Amino acid sequence: MNGDGFYNVAQVLFEAGSYFPHSSIQVQHIFPHPTTISRGVMQIYEHSKQQLIQICKDIKSCCVVVDSWSEKYTGINYCGIGLRFTDENFKLLSFVLGCYAYDAPSHAALHFREFVDSKLQEYNSQLDSSKFVISDNEPNMLAAFRDNCQRIGCSDHYLNKQLQHAFESSEIHLNKNIVENVNCTAAQNIFSLVKNIVVDIRRSHRQQQQSMKLQVYSGTRFNGALTMLDIFREVFYELSALLTNTKSMDSFNLIDKKSVDDICCFLQPFDEVIQSLSEDHRSTLHKVISYRQCLINKCEINEDDSIVIAELKTFLDVVVSKSKSLLVQCFDVQVDSTMEAINPHQEIDVYLNSEFCCNHDGNGFEDGDIDILSYWREKQNQFSILSFIAKQIHMIPASNTTVERLFSSTKNVISEKRTNIGSQKLNQLLFLQKNLNLLKQLSNDSRRKRTISMSSTTTISSEDSTCTMPKQSKLDHEESESISDDAEIFLD
């Protein structure tokens, strides 16, 4: 019993034992096997779900994020539900409640609402007038969340829909009685030619001869036109030799490279806005108005614009009165930290009449963006009502991409060669993937607060009280540690 190999194994076993002193994991469960993960997922999922249920008990106001999706390989319809809220410290928390197999009788608004309500009840939550819902702007979503909640449309979906119309529609219905022509003929011709060429190449072996893989257009992908056109222009000069003696060569000769470049440059700000409004862990709703005005300004026609760009700008431009943005002014108020609380009836007047400044030290992210919730946390003593309102409003996301990304994760799990995984197991895996780290962090924070609280209180010197105080608490703590250790092994 000697040698480097034996000593290395012994050292690893010794370190593992010291790192997981309370773990109940069996040795045979650690060794790789097709069922290694599935054997432990259920226990970890149930424990984590109970943690989230306890958190939801204390939530008074929240925002529910909802979307639905159909998986193409299995044909199963899924409904994704997310939850966002702010805690007492103005910290934004975002959870995924589940990616559920949709088993309601139909996709009618009534059945969809009943399905969502049933899943919320599992977390002791229900929609009412104080709850917000973020969804896309499809008719069934509008009808499903018309009552007993405050529905807000997804800004990214709205913006993407306008871009879709610009490249694919001949006319749009503004309402039941008014129809407007799109008039983006030049851009639509280029878009159609590129789309057909990309589809043709992707279906053939010629795709392997390119330096970059062409991207087929998808209407469900935000700003999908830019994704397709941007890659197309990168490999534009490679395509001439690739398409020689093919039916697509005639279409390729009709495409003006400069027009494709112009379209991509014009669409870039739209893509940046969509990406910014898709942040999962930051407040985004306050950015919508200023971003909207920015895009409207980008749609102003210049003398040197080509016909393609002029048509796109004309369609996407919105007729609005260009008022001065108040967002920065309202946020840049400088407040005396020693000022006492104000009369509620005077609070908004005092806030709007305060002096402005540009100092946001401590209220920003690493990339320079302002942490607006941190700002209002610092002002809650001076502006209690406004800070409370801001805390409620800024938990609302500008888009429902939290759930959209959940469906993207589903696509990574289910593929053409992997379709046997059950919908229940899929839901459990995605729940743990999206929530486990945050739940563990909150659990550690709560444990740390309890430790500090206990150490700061007066210790009772009675021998009986010392013996009876933390016995059950200690057992619960050890069980929680064991589950957490199991999760690290299975999911790391």
Folded structure, characterized:
Residues 452-468 have a biased composition (Low complexity). GO terms for molecular function: protein dimerization activity; zinc ion binding. It is found in: Nucleus. Keywords: Metal-binding, Nucleus, Zinc, Zinc-finger. Residues 478-492 have a biased composition (Acidic residues). The protein has 492 residues and is of the alpha/beta class. The chain folds into three domains: 4-154 and 400-451 and 478-491, no CATH class; 160-316, no CATH class; 327-393, no CATH class. It is 53% helix and 9% strand. The protein has helices at residues 4-19, 27-30, 36-57, 109-121, 139-144, 155-168, 185-202, 224-234, 236-242, 248-253, 257-276, 288-298, 307-316, 327-331, 347-352, 372-378, 384-393, 401-413, 423-456, 463-468, 471-491; strands at 63-70, 77-86, 92-101, 132-135, 150-153, 171-173, 179-181. The strands form two sheets. The chain has a five-stranded mixed sheet, sandwiched between helices. Helix 3 (36-57) crosses helix 19, helix 3 crosses helix 21 and helix 7 (185-202) packs across helix 8. The radius of gyration is 28 Å and the shape is globular. 26% of the residues are buried.
Main pleated sheet: 5 strands, mixed
Structural class: alpha/beta
Percentage of residues assigned to helices: 40-55%
**Order of H and E elements:** HHHEEEHEHEHEEHHHHHHHHHHHHHHH
Which consecutive residue ranges, at least 5 long each, have pLDDT under 50? 318-338, 466-473, 488-492
Q: How many domains make up the 3D coordinates?
A: 3
Question: What is the number of strand segments?
Answer: 7
Q: Identify the strand order in the major beta sheet.
A: 3-2-1-4-5
Overall spatial form:
globular
Strand content: 5-15%
Give the end-to-end Cα distance, rounded to a whole number of Å.
32 Å
Mean pLDDT: 81
Radius of gyration: 28 Å
Treating each run of at least 4 consecutive H or I residues as one helix, how many helices? 21
